Amino acid sequence: MIIKVDEDEQHMKGKGKGPAKPAERKCPKPIVSKSSTGSGPKVNNKDAKGKTLVNKGHEVSASTSDSNNNVIINMLTDMRNEQSSTNKRLEDMNKRIDVLYNDEYDDEYDNVGDVDEDMDEVHEPDDGQDTGNEPPCKKQKTLSNREESRFSSMNKRFRSGERCGDKLDEHLADNIKIIFRNGISEEKYRELMKDEKSNRPENCEGLVPVQTDQLVWDLLWPRTRTNDNRMRQCQTTVVRGATYLSKVVNRLDTILGKEDTQNKPELEGILDDCMDSLALFGHANKEICLGENSLKPDVKVNIVSCLIAQPFNKWLFGGDVSKTVKKTLENVFRGGFRGGWRSSWNRRRGRGRGGRGRDAVQHCYIEFTDNRPPIQNKMSIRNSKFNLKEEKIVDIEIEKLLKMNVIQEVESEINEFISPIFVRPKKNGEYRMILNLKELNKHIEYQHFKMDSFESALNLIKENAYMSSVDLRHAYYSINIAEQHRKFLRFVWKEKYFQYSCLPNGIAMAPRLFTKIMKVVYASLHKMGYVNVGYIDDSLLLGDTELECKNNVTETVNMVSSLGFIVHKDKSVFTPKKCIKFLGFYIDSETMIVTLPVEKQDTIAKECKQLQSKNKCKIREVARVLGILISSLPAVEFGKLYYRKIEREKIKALKLAMGDFDSEMFVTSEMKQDLKWWSDNIYTQKRKFNRGNPQVIIQTDASKLGWGAVLNEQKIGSRWSNDEKDNHINCLELLAVYYALKSFKDDLNTVENVKILTDNTTAVSYINSMGGIKSIECNRIARKIWIWCFEHQIWLIATHIPGKLNTKADYQSRNFNDQIEWQLNKNNFEKHDRTLCKEDYKRQGRRAVCGTTLANPTMVCSSNETVNKQSICYQSKQKAIDSTIQGHSSSFRKDIEFDGMSDIRNRLQNRGISEKTSTIIMASWRSGTQKQYKTYIKKWFIFCLERKEDKFHTSVELVLEFLTYLFECGLSYSALNSARSALSAFGLTFDNVPVGKHPLVIRFLKGVYHLRPTVHNDVNIWDVSIVLRLLRRLSPVADISVKDLTLKLVMLIALTNATRSQSIHLLKLSNMQKQKDCFRFKIFDLLKQSRPGYKNPEVILKSFPPDRRLCVYLVLKEYLKRTVDIRSEEDSLILSYIKPHKKVSCSTISRWIKSIMCRAGIDTSIFKAHSTRSASTSKAKQNNVPVSDILAKAGWSSSTTFGKFYDKTVTTTDVFAEKVLQI
Asked: What residue spans carry the region label Disordered (predicted)?
């Protein structure tokens, strides 16, 4: 069989005529020169370019110039020496290989002189030979008996272990060489893989690519999955090749079975060779299946051994993994150790079986990002500077570490990583030498993990419990670093190189690794019934009785000692106590209080007073003081209220200084106020923990109209004042909590713990954290809430409640009985109150003013403009009389009734239209239109109220004056057009003509257009290829995070269907149809472009075989697979990638699209999420897609809409400057 190779693949062949002859090489002659000192001749070998090669053992000739570079000469000498040693190693290696071949594979033949010297020779076609696509000639060239050159022995020297057979046809050998080195083209590969000839025979089950079992696949890391996919692709190729060969073997066997077959002995020999080849294919398939090393970082060794023992079929581990690892599945974890525990690990230094595995205890490997070790620039190495005293300390510490075998003295080598060292004093007077691994940590992969904290320890302490502690000495040093990675933990001291052989302090992976190891220890103790909490090398041991705590100490010390850890007797507390020092704090189980040590209190007071006395200091000094304050918060109950002003000023100064901590900043008056609180109150501060369950639960909610709260059966609500209503909703939610606490104050007099339920997560976070940094206003309100609680000795806990469960408080925040209560105008009241009640005025708050409840509110007329209505009503005591409060209409209906649209309804009913008919007419305006109309109707009401005009019966002159007022306020032509439409919807008519169609109003708007013409958007649009490049990098989809997968899916849907965020938001699984190569979604909800007689276009997500990285079909399949467990009963396609994984709004989808655009480098200050419609359709038109198809896909009614608003020029990258700079 002759393999045909295309002309462009035969790059090893020359273009000249006739066979190429090997170039004759001549040995360079030694050049004799005399040194400048006349000490005799010196022999130098120079190559053709004149470079000097210095021979070992000879003196080096200096240049004839005056500058004699000894450094270069020494370097060349070292290079020559290294080359000689390399050659010697190669000779030794070849001898070992020869012995290996002679012993194992060369029993019958002498393994010498059997090398094909012409194996790598390049053959040129003969004269007149066609070098096109014709098959190579089958004629075999005769070998010329030419003499060996003096360098031909190199071939034998380096290939003395290779045994070759008879030669093949020259062209066949050349083609095999090219294919085995370069492979075949992708097109030819796909063609062969899809060929029916490669289909598996029906009865041959072994010719199937083996897949990883799903249970094991789910445990693998993304990079491991990528490697497994590559191995599977390689295995598929091997299986297809074996399929071809198996059919050849079967055909030969059929031919030999015939009686009239000629040349049977020759054919039988060919059959035997083919069967041997097939056997090698099968062995290669087995070797690929047994790639256990790729699973060890993710699955423990004992489970891998258990799985590998199972025979594989079409599944790598037999397909029944759940039964195979039923007892050991709990040992599998992701992101754990490199390898697993030994079966018997009570002797930590013992090796045991599985020495090749990466055991976290014996052979800890540094987890570099993408498994790529760092390459250090030697010029960036900066050694620390020490004085004489510090040098002595370092000498002593190095001597200690050498005796403990923590560090080793080594020689410098390539690819090592040098880090500086520094020393820090301990509390016991000793010093700790630390390796500064700041630069190395940048190359170590960060992995999120959970560990016990001081708070989790407090939650386990019962009242009057006994406590002890066990501290481990040199904890990190008990974990060995793998020898291959020790070169990355080196430092230089006095021109000597040292490396850590154990886990050093300061490496990023150390806390996670050591916590994982100790969790196994504590888990074993928990099974014995003991309660322990560990924080790296320190642990807190608890017991309900003194004896129980003593037993806990005994078992813990015995276990950690048997594992090879060293217990620090000086720091440990073996005697059970009810007051113990743990992690720098005193814990008292009798009073359930945490306090600071006196020395820590002195340090805080001293540092705060020093900083308070300064007007200017370095940012680093402020950061240091902040670190001290924040570290003391577990023992300072209200300390969180008095450090955020300092933190905010530090962040502001750091931004101005471009991250330079050595820059100076001002110590502001607000900072000094917080510092003064710390210095004055630190000695009296303490914190109570485990307060018990809350005694009162209050539900609160806020809307743009007002706030509401519910306590048991008591309900309360009020409108926002003019100063409050414009605040952000997060601020309003916090204000709702504040007003609810003040309103229910009488019910909280005997209460210590209060629980707040709110549906705003920001409010929950700011309350539980006693403030925050991001929002100044939210921090101010949260601080006000907690100061009020401190004054009334109330402890607050906030919890999130879903909005659909918070209906009572929501109702109170939207429905008010304005006639049930009155209060005087605030300005007039305060003016007279200052003179009449001077003593009580300061104690009087704005919300403390309570009006008199009227016996019959209907007898009192509505308020005029001098009365400020504030409704605070307890509906449990008195029901509202106003008819608008009756019934149980939805909150959406109430939003309409109180936002100006209710007047449109009333106008319709005044014309004799029934309420049901009015409701249907009101539905003709969509929610977005109603929001738009609401703004201008309110402005119209205010405008008429200020001029004391009737808002229902007016003149066209007043309408024109209103529009002129809006024009002077800066509104554009389109905004004024919306105002005209709102007034027309309101029902204003003049001369039986709607106000919007009145000739004067139309003429007025034309004048507005000429005076303030509409500014068109940029005629350019961003290039889709910019985003596609980013989406390609988010591949393969099986390895990326759920967040990136969600963002990629949303962007691909938006681009491939030119759809709005609203359409993506309305995609539902119940309306999805899965077909062979696409997903189809039907949308039955109303879209923005929906109109009578219009059919919503289907959203079709088709496969894209040319580039699987951009295939939205594959992305959606992976997304459905990932979200099947978190979807529950949710029907919406797109879910939030963060808990609680509910459906998202249109604005969230738009924000996701903008985030992808921003990551791709598109200016999102100019282009919004909606620009994807213009970008995709413009790109489609540029690629000659018919306009009719574009209109149908995007849902536009005419080409005018597309041409006027969406068809834009695609912006291309300006490469002129780049090309100029590259010249």
From this structure: 1-66, 107-154
